[in-house]
Specification:
Tetracycline Repressor, domain 2; mainly alpha; Arc Repressor Mutant, subunit A
Length: 205
């Protein structure tokens, strides 16, 4: 009985994932408005009833993937930012940026032009842009930098956060309009743009 329930649960997870992957693939090919729930189901060989077991609408696919991106990013930052061993705020900020950019590369499908269209149509872009770079880590890194003397004591955290968000949006937009550019080039550019913001934190000589 237990094994049967476990198999059914695994099959359900696989079906949910397959529907999402196929939806993202079709959106990438045809644009968000060019894909329907019927088409997603037909490509996966399942009924609409099965689709609605896992998702309430096509928009749910966009929300689900954005939520997955955020949740795994939060987890990675909490697990990988090495506050215990790294006592340099500048080094921690660079590690923070590298983790974020690596996450974007892993979820590159989210930053295609077609998927960005879906985010705009569902109204998720602004909400997502403010939630996918956990602010508490930035605040903690700035506080450390002020204590160690690496950063200016009068750093305006809110202003820096806004600048970081705007720069991140610019990097993601560049990604979406230059889909033919290889991931390594995108990575280096995003690291350079986000990393350069460190200059706003440093003490002026």
């Amino acid at each position: 009985m237990a094994k049967g329930m476990e198999r059914r649960a695994l099959k359900a997870q696989e079906t949910k994932r397959r529907l999402m992957e196929k939806a993202v693939e079709l959106i990438g090919q045809r644009g968000y408005s060019g894909v329907s729930v019927n088409q997603i189901c037909a490509e996966c060989g399942v009924s609409k009833g099965t689709y609605y077991v896992y998702y309430n609408s096509k928009e749910d696919i966009v929300y689900y993937l954005a939520s997955e991106f955020n949740e795994t990013l939060y987890q990675r930052l909490n697990e990988e930012l090495d506050y215990d061993s790294i006592h340099s705020a500048r080094e921690l900020y660079r590690q923070y940026v590298e983790i974020y950019v690596d996450q974007v590369i892993r979820y590159g499908r989210m930053f295609s032009r077609a998927y960005q269209e879906g985010m705009l149509r569902t109204g998720i872009t602004q909400e997502h842009s403010r939630s996918d770079l956990p602010e508490e880590h930035v605040s903690r890194i700035i506080d450390l930098g002020i204590r160690t003397g690496e950063f200016r004591p009068d750093v305006d955290k809110a202003a820096f956060w806004e600048q970081l968000t705007i720069t991140k949006l610019g990097a993601n937009y560049a990604w979406s309009i230059e889909e033919s550019v290889d991931a390594e080039h995108q990575r280096e550019r995003a690291l350079r743009w986000l990393g350069s913001l460190e200059l706003f934190l440093l003490k002026r000589e």
